[in-house]
Specification:
Elements (H helix, E strand, L loop, with lengths): L2 E2 L5 E2 L3 H8 L3 H9 L12 H30 L8 H9 L1 H19 L9 H6 L2 H7 L3 H9 L9 H28 L1
Antiparallel strand pairs: 1-2
Amino acid sequence: MFYICSSGESLVETSLYIAARECRNPATLTTLLKRGANIDKNCTASLCRNACSTVINAHLRRLIFRNLALKKARLSHQQPVELNKDEITIRQNCPVMWEYYQNAIEKLDRMKATAKFIRSCSFFDLLTKCRCKIAVLMRHRQFQRLFRSFGRGGFPIFADDIMEAFKHARKYYESMMDQEELIYEAA
């Protein structure tokens, strides 16, 4: 969990606060206190911890903003959506993340308008449709071949998400095929 202070920087909890919240072993708290943990200090951190949390938080923020953009794109697919209070806060407090978020929305809009790479499936559909619906399309050998040959380079923000969605759908398909074999053997 991170907090945003008035200057826009994220504030990191100290090890003592995290240990008090997460740890069930009182010896850990005792050790931290014996080694000089400051109980009044809750918004600064060591350079190492701060560097690690900054990298992790930046990655997690990008993930959150990608998912927020995906949610907005899914909703706007049905009807236009206005800015909500979270988006207004992001625009005012985090201009870099706002730019990333706008870029993600732009890529999703392009993804929606992109030609379907097979039948009724685009990359946007792959990200938003149920795995079971995509797995049905995997029955056609051409689906997997066309997916691999169709360029995902135009959507670098979502390339990993697209691959992950494809892998999940393929696992679902393989599971579906195994179940069909079991049913066939039982009959």
